[in-house]
């Protein structure tokens, strides 16, 4: 038979809940207010200047506002002063200090960022011989943003770097040249087929090059699992856009656990990405156990290097876990896709502004290869193209 709990028991339970809530509130208040204010005071005491801390979001709201204003106005065609457009907030906040070589403070949420403009001081920071400059981590983003090599430090970074090194060896990259060539040929053929009767065709390079880099990374990273790799590329692109749009809210305690439509969608996409990767990695590992030779794509080389590392050290826990390998695969996409497509788009823009360089590059390529497909040895002799 059920009996109601006594008043002292109920009071004790409520008291315990109250203590836990007060403790959590104190932790969040320390993280979001007391600690940032204390750090700001310490930095200013050392002579550093910059923006003041704004509760919860720091400079994120102001940064978004300035970027929206800058992007609303078209950049003059032959203008090379791109910093005010690409990073208007940093250009305004850091530019004054950079002119005098002085560090400046900005805020990424409750985390202060010190922007170093003096080359000698930057060299000291980047060398990081004594481990004083730790990489900043954001727990709110760690489940959605790849946590591969770039997020690690110390011995963990060194282990990941040793295992990943063979993936980027020159001889391995040479084997991927036919894939690069095939993807580029498909793109050019599609463009050629779109040329109108007047012999011209207007191309929006940015989405075209985003698609190209996605194809290249998917095929070089996962080989025959290209379609699954392409799906990962599409999901990560959409996931990153959603993260950027909601980044100001992520510093609100517990926000990422709220069942909002955007949060549910982000977690669903991340879950699908990891499910696809786990399946591909599992199939490759099973094939290796059955004696099949590893493939020359990035995943195959990584698994082979990881296996060799464990054999040399004699312990299975000395290698990368499946989760580690998944994060490194996600980082291949995250680090390689936008950076490469932006570089290609910017190069095309500059070439369109300077047709004489198009002529010089075309003459050099045709003189060296004629109508033959480019090979690695020939590419290394392209001086003008290398400059571009």
UniProtKB/TrEMBL annotation:
<protein>
    <submittedName>
        <fullName>Os01g0602500 protein</fullName>
    </submittedName>
</protein>
<dbReference type="InterPro" id="IPR050665">
    <property type="entry name" value="Cytochrome_P450_Monooxygen"/>
</dbReference>
<keyword id="KW-0349">Heme</keyword>
<dbReference type="GO" id="GO:0006629">
    <property type="term" value="P:lipid metabolic process"/>
</dbReference>
<comment type="similarity">
    <text>Belongs to the cytochrome P450 family.</text>
</comment>
<keyword id="KW-0560">Oxidoreductase</keyword>
<keyword id="KW-0503">Monooxygenase</keyword>
<keyword id="KW-0408">Iron</keyword>
<dbReference type="GO" id="GO:0005506">
    <property type="term" value="F:iron ion binding"/>
</dbReference>
<dbReference type="GO" id="GO:0020037">
    <property type="term" value="F:heme binding"/>
</dbReference>
<dbReference type="InterPro" id="IPR002401">
    <property type="entry name" value="Cyt_P450_E_grp-I"/>
</dbReference>
<keyword id="KW-0472">Membrane</keyword>
<dbReference type="InterPro" id="IPR036396">
    <property type="entry name" value="Cyt_P450_sf"/>
</dbReference>
<dbReference type="GO" id="GO:0004497">
    <property type="term" value="F:monooxygenase activity"/>
</dbReference>
<dbReference type="Pfam" id="PF00067">
    <property type="entry name" value="p450"/>
</dbReference>
<keyword id="KW-1133">Transmembrane helix</keyword>
<dbReference type="InterPro" id="IPR001128">
    <property type="entry name" value="Cyt_P450"/>
</dbReference>
<dbReference type="GO" id="GO:0016020">
    <property type="term" value="C:membrane"/>
</dbReference>
<keyword id="KW-0479">Metal-binding</keyword>
<keyword id="KW-0812">Transmembrane</keyword>
<dbReference type="GO" id="GO:0016705">
    <property type="term" value="F:oxidoreductase activity, acting on paired donors, with incorporation or reduction of molecular oxygen"/>
</dbReference>
């Amino acid at each position: 038979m059920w009996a109601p709990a006594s008043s002292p028991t109920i009071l004790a339970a409520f008291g315990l809940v109250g203590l836990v809530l007060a403790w959590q509130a104190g932790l969040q208040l320390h993280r979001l207010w007391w600690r940032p204010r204390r750090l700001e005071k310490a930095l200013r005491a050392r002579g550093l200047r910059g923006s003041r801390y704004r509760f919860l979001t720091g400079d994120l709201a102001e940064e978004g506002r300035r970027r929206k204003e800058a992007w609303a106005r078209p950049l003059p065609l032959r203008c090379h002063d791109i910093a005010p457009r690409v990073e208007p907030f940093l250009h305004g906040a850091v530019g004054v200090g950079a002119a005098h070589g002085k560090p400046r403070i900005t805020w990424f949420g409750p985390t202060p960022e010190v922007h170093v403009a003096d080359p000698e001081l930057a060299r000291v920071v980047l060398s990081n011989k004594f481990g004083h400059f730790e990489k900043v981590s954001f727990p709110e983003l760690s489940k959605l943003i790849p946590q591969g090599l770039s997020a690690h430090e110390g011995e963990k970074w060194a282990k990941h770097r040793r295992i990943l090194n063979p993936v980027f060896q020159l001889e391995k990259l040479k084997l991927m040249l036919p894939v690069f060539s095939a993807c580029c040929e498909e793109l050019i053929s599609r463009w050629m087929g779109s040329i109108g009767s007047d012999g011209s065709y207007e191309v929006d390079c940015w989405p075209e090059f985003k698609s190209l880099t996605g194809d290249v990374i998917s095929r070089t990273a996962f080989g025959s699992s290209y379609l699954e790799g392409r799906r990962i590329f599409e999901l990560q692109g959409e996931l990153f856009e959603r993260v950027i749009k909601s980044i100001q809210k992520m510093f609100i305690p517990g926000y990422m656990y709220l069942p909002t439509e955007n949060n549910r969608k982000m977690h669903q996409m991340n879950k699908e990405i990891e499910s696809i990767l786990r399946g591909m990695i599992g199939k490759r590992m099973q094939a290796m156990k059955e004696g099949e030779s590893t493939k020359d794509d990035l995943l195959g080389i990584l698994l082979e290097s990881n296996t060799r590392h464990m054999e040399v050290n004699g312990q299975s826990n000395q290698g990368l876990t499946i989760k580690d390998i998944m994060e490194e695969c996600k980082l291949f996409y995250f680090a390689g896709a936008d950076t490469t497509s932006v570089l290609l788009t910017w190069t095309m823009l500059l070439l369109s502004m300077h047709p004489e360089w198009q002529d010089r590059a075309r003459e050099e390529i045709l003189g060296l290869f004629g109508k033959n497909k480019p090979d690695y040895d020939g590419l290394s002799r392209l001086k003008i193209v290398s400059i571009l």
